[in-house]
Each structure stands twice: as structure tokens, then as C-alpha cells.
TrEMBL record:
Domain FAD/NAD(P)-binding per the UniProt entry, residue ranges: 5-292
Catalytic activity, EC: 1.8.1.9
Classification of source organism: Bacteria, Candidatus Uhriibacteriota
Reactions that this protein is recorded to catalyse: [thioredoxin]-dithiol + NADP(+) = [thioredoxin]-disulfide + NADPH + H(+)
Protein name: Thioredoxin reductase
Top-tier EC class: oxidoreductase
Keyword Disulfide bond: yes
NADP in keyword set: yes
Residue ranges of coiled coil: none
Entry cofactors: FAD
One GO term (biological process): removal of superoxide radicals
PROSITE patterns: PYRIDINE_REDOX_2
């Protein structure tokens, strides 16, 4: 089995940027794209804060450009899903089911995935009115009423997007204030199709073959109301995709990978981390891309010294 100089796991802005830098450094990187190639930006509409795109860029278009740029310099990309890793000795082992690959260094850029509420009806009605992706499923809710949970930038961005189709979007916020930026709050609050229910928590989604209503608890008054709805969207943040690294790479209590200060180095020499998988603070496409660049530069230095 050939030993690669570097394997990049993940295909968001961090992974592709690492690919661009590593391939330009002649490290012939292999990038394993994961199940959802392109990462979270594939489920976004317009990205307005990517530098160099003053008119905004659609998330999937940005990812296609990054992928093309990575391939252009020689990044080999395979569409597969890593099921197991062995970082106990070098070369490191990466398994994809029965398939095994070896590498002298690894960049972990596996990103983060949407969180769910785990309430009654949520799992059962997924794809039948329950969704965590407005850009994927919003189209199905033309002239329908939607309940959406969350108070961050993602929730309001999704709520605004859903108003293109829905007749009404009710946003459930568990506190009496939003976490979202002031600019996003202003946009959502001035949209007449969006209303807010404060101190409100979804308790159950009612319906058998499709969403019919949502049982909502007011956590101040303990009152429970039934709100009829056709759709139920969840936008309450993300969980880092680190399950396969448990016991090998150091993580914080939420599962985000730890790295050395001012570095992408993990607790294992030769294993680096970039993007949302190790960033509980910024979680922006541009910061992910920046850390992908850092990881590739650190890999280059590491390989030169072994
Ligand atoms: P955030 O962590 O910022 O917000 C999560 C929201 O969901 C909070 O309002 C939180 O409530 C709420 N929440 C969490 N768990 C539950 C639960 N169990 N029940 C009900 N509500 C819950 O995540 P986002 O995904 O919104 O944003 C992540 C990062 O990405 C942020 O830094 C954000 O700024 C950025 N972002 C930027 C965008 C842009 O600039 N265009 C677009 C989208 C995201 P509480 O506040 O009470 O904790």
C-alpha cells in the first residue's frame, strides 16, 4: 500500500484550502470528501461576507470554485467516508469500510453537522415536514405555515429564506432575546411574514404522515399551546464531526478538537486540524479557509523535518 504524504479528511472551505496549499507545495494531497461533499455551505444560499465577492456568492457555487481550484493544482479527491482511523503510530491509517490508506500526515477538516432537538415526532417526521435545511426543503412549503426553532444567525437566515415560499414563519426562541447579529435581527424583524414566540420551546411535533401542529411550552408561564403548521425547521447550531477520533485526538467537552495555541497541531505529532471541527468560536467560511491554509503550511514544515 502506498503511503501518501498527506491525507485531508473533509471537503469544506478548510479541506479545499488545505488542498490548494498542499498541492501547490507539491505534496500530492489526497482529499477524502465525506458523505456531504462541500460541507455546510452546500446548504446555504447567498454568502455575503466572503472577501472578494462584493455581490455575494451562492454557497454551492463557492464550493465548486474551491474544489476546482484544489483539483487544478493536483489535489486528488475521492468521494468516500472515513469510518475509522489509527493515529497510534506513523504512517497513520485511515479506513473507509474495507479500504485502507496510509499517510505520513493528516489534516482533519471534518466540520460540524446540524443539531436536532430530539423531541417526539422530530425523527419520525423527517422528510415529511421536518427539516434542518431551509435551502434544501424550503421549496416544498409554498404558501404554507412553518415553525422554526433557534435564535442565532442561522435560524434568522433560514427564516428569511423560507419567507420566499412560506406564507408565515413563526420563530421559537427559548430565551427572551436573540443570539443573532443586530443586522440579521433587523432584517428578520422587518420581514412581515416572520413572527417570534419568546421563551418558547417545542415539545412535540404532531402528525402521522406529515406535520400538522407543534406543541409549544412557554417556559416562563408553563402554558402549553398547540400551533398548527405544515413545516418544522430546526436551526439550533451544530455538533463537530469527531466521533471517529474519540480516544485518539484531544477534544473539549463539546467534542471540538483541541489544537496548540497559534497552530493547527493536535496532541498527535503529524495530525493537524482545520475549520469548524476545531473552532467553537468563529465558525465562518473564511476562518475555516484560513485555518486550512495554516494546516497545509504546518504539514509542509512537518514533512520537511521527519
Ligand atoms: P448559534 O450557536 O449562534 O445559535 C444557536 C441558537 O439556537 C441560539 O439562539 C440558541 O439559543 C438556540 N438553541 C440551541 N440549542 C437549542 C435548543 N435545544 N432548543 C432551542 N433553541 C436552542 O448557532 P448558529 O448556527 O446560528 O450560528 C453558528 C455561527 O455561524 C455563529 O457564529 C453565527 O454568527 C455564524 N453564522 C453567520 C452567518 C452570517 O454571517 N451570514 C449565517 C449563519 C451563521 P441560546 O441563544 O439560548 O443559546
Amino acid at each position: 500500500m502506498d503511503t501518501r504524504k498527506v491525507i485531508i479528511i473533509g471537503s469544506g472551505p478548510a479541506g479545499y484550502t488545505a488542498g490548494i496549499y498542499a498541492s501547490r507545495a507539491d505534496l500530492q494531497p489526497l482529499l477524502i470528501s465525506g458523505q456531504e461533499a462541500g460541507g455546510q455551505l452546500m446548504q446555504t444560499t447567498e454568502v455575503e461576507n466572503w472577501p472578494g465577492e462584493p455581490d455575494g456568492v451562492m454557497g454551492p457555487d463557492l464550493m465548486t470554485k474551491l474544489e476546482t481550484q484544489a483539483r487544478k493544482f493536483g489535489t486528488e479527491i475521492i468521494t468516500d467516508f472515513v469510518t475509522e482511523v489509527d493515529f497510534s503510530s506513523r504512517p497513520f491509517m485511515v479506513k473507509m469500510g474495507e479500504k485502507e490508506l496510509k499517510a505520513e500526515s493528516i489534516i482533519v477538516a471534518t466540520g460540524a453537522s446540524a443539531q436536532w432537538l430530539r423531541i417526539k415526532g422530530e425523527y419520525e417526521l423527517k422528510g415529511k415536514g421536518v427539516s434542518a435545511c431551509a435551502t434544501c426543503d424550503g421549496f416544498f412549503f409554498r404558501d404554507k405555515k412553518i415553525v422554526l426553532v433557534g435564535g442565532g444567525d442561522s435560524a434568522l437566515e433560514e427564516a428569511i429564506f423560507l419567507t420566499k415560499f412560506a406564507s408565515e414563519v413563526v420563530v421559537l426562541v427559548r430565551r427572551d432575546e436573540l443570539r443573532a447579529s443586530k443586522a440579521m435581527q433587523h432584517r428578520a424583524m422587518s420581514n412581515e411574514k416572520i413572527s417570534f414566540m419568546w421563551n418558547s420551546e417545542a415539545q412535540e411535533i404532531v402528525g402521522t404522515d406529515k406535520v400538522k401542529a407543534v406543541m409549544i411550552l412557554n417556559n416562563k408561564t408553563d402554558e402549553i399551546v398547540k400551533v398548527e403548521a405544515d413545516g418544522f425547521f430546526v436551526a439550533i447550531g451544530h455538533k463537530p464531526n469527531t466521533d471517529i477520533f474519540k480516544g485518539q485526538l484531544e477534544m473539549d467537552e463539546k467534542g471540538y478538537l483541541k489544537h496548540l495555541p497559534d497552530s493547527t497541531r493536535t496532541n498527535i505529532d503529524g495530525v493537524f486540524t482545520a475549520g469548524d471541527v476545531s473552532d467553537p468560536h468563529f465558525r465562518q467560511a473564511i476562518t475555516a479557509a484560513g485555518s486550512g491554509c495554516m494546516a497545509a503550511l504546518e504539514v509542509e514544515r512537518f514533512l520537511a523535518n521527519i
